[in-house]
Design brief:
Number of strands: 2
Distance between the termini: 35 Å
Strand order of the largest sheet: 1-2
Largest sheet: 2 strands, antiparallel
Shape: globular
Radius of gyration: 19 Å
């Protein structure tokens, strides 16, 4: 009964996060537009940040809840597994499904973001594989890369000002409604994240499933729902490049802002479990390379990339389970 209740509360947490994130993004865009901020800048910053709020809130909350208690390792594994797992899920599952459906044009904007993501992913792999943790110094470097990414977006947006429109909010909505929506969205994300973190750890302990596996599967998929919804909607509206750009931005933010902040606020550094440091980061680098490099060279994605990404993601999940069940060793 306890397991069923934990699973139910976990699912509720995911739904609340998704709905809260939608409210937050829509209202934040409306407020920014009303204050005169360029629509391209809004799309390049607010939208990408908004879709990564679930991952950010869940991982940072897990770090804070972990503290120095006996359950700190479980919370830490949920936090790290969610961050890296979401990056894997965004490319290996969400974007892969989109790429299986159709080829996507990849112009100059993709080139810059793709190379930036590749660099961030390789740097993360180096940091984690060498020390088995992310310390304060590494966290500061990652946060500096996040600042550089935002600056890059603003420069690109300024050059393309008024050429594109991003319409995510109702123009005629009242300011009071949008401010209330912003607050409700933020509160929903915080409340949903709390449910998701607590019940992920509880369900992990009750079922005997490793917190690391919970982090890279159920929690990662749950917090990647905004990217999934955006990707599906972009395909339906024949604008798959929107989903592609959003996932590139989301992964850069996860790898820099999320893990950088977690490393800085973790006393003594953010400990990375053996599976994440010995398998996950290397698989993340491989999956990112399969997505980025052919698109950079040929200026478009290919359907075979989508199939290969799905295969690699399936292999990763299988290896993860086998390793944590001690069927095979690293």
């Amino acid at each position: 009964m306890d397991g069923f209740l934990s699973a139910l509360l976990l699912a509720m947490g995911i739904l609340i996060i998704v709905y809260g994130g939608d409210l937050f993004v829509n209202s934040a865009i409306w407020i920014a537009k009303k204050t005169g901020v360029s629509e391209m800048i809004i799309g390049a910053t607010v939208v990408s940040l908004g879709t990564t709020l679930p991952e950010l809130s869940v991982s940072l909350l897990a770090i804070v809840k972990g503290g120095d208690g006996a359950m700190s390792q479980s919370f830490n594994q949920i936090a790290v597994g969610n961050a890296l797992g979401s990056m894997l899920c965004n490319i290996g599952l969400v974007l892969a499904l989109v790429m299986c459906v159709k080829s996507i044009a990849a112009g100059k904007e993709f080139f810059l973001k793709g190379i930036y993501l590749m660099a961030v992913t390789v740097l993360l792999t180096v940091f984690i594989s060498i020390n088995g943790q992310l310390g304060t110094a590494e966290g500061i470097v990652l946060l500096a890369l996040f600042a550089g990414f935002i600056a890059l977006n603003i420069v690109q947006a300024a050059k393309k000002k008024d050429r594109e429109k991003v319409s995510f909010a109702e123009e005629n909505a009242s300011a009071a409604i949008m401010i209330i929506s912003l607050i409700m969205g933020a509160a929903g994300i915080a409340f949903g994240a709390n449910l998701l973190v607590d019940n992920s750890v509880r369900l992990s302990l009750l079922s005997g499933i490793s917190p690391q596996i919970m982090g890279v599967t159920a929690v990662a998929l749950g917090t990647s729902m905004p990217e999934l919804v955006t990707a599906v909607a972009s395909v339906r509206k024949k604008s798959a490049c929107i989903g592609l750009g959003n996932i590139l931005g989301a992964n850069i933010i996860n790898g820099t802002l999320l893990l950088g902040t977690a490393a800085v606020i973790s006393e003594g550094g953010l400990e990375i479990d053996a599976v994440s440091s010995g398998l996950t980061v290397f698989m993340l680098t491989a999956i990112t390379a399969v997505m980025v490099l052919p698109a950079v060279l040929k200026k478009k994605t290919f359907r075979w990339q989508g199939y290969l990404l799905l295969a690699l993601y399936s292999v990763y999940i299988t290896l993860n389970v086998l390793i944590t069940r001690n069927v095979i060793t690293l």
